[in-house]
Amino acid sequence: MSDFDDWRPVRNHEGAYEVARPDRVRSIDRVIERRGHRGAPPFIQHLRGKELSSRNHHGKQLVWLYDREHRRHQRTVASLIAEAFGDTAA
Q1: Alpha carbon of 68 to those of 40, 71, 87: distances in Å?
Q2: What is the layout of strands, in order, in the sheet containing 55-57?
Q3: Which long-range contacts (CB under 8 A, 24 or more apart) does 84-89 make?
Q4: Mean pLDDT for each consecutive 10-residue tract of the chain (90 residues)?
């Protein structure tokens, strides 16, 4: 992974995910607050960024992204790149 790639933030996931051409998505190092399990107090979790792997579904590359409420959303890599770089074809 080159530091000279043009990485741009993913819309609605700024500060968590970035995209670059061709067909690359990565998470960013971040700190989140998590709820405790079964009455345990909330805690801070440190997440290390990494390049995400995508899966092929009927010719489209798909990735799972998590929002701030920890709900996951499936998106095509092409649509993420189109939104980030201002392309009209997705």
Answers
A1: 21, 7, 26
A2: 55-57, 60-66, 72-76
A3: 84/8, 84/9, 84/10, 84/11, 84/18, 84/19, 85/8, 85/21
A4: 77 92 92 86 92 95 91 94 80
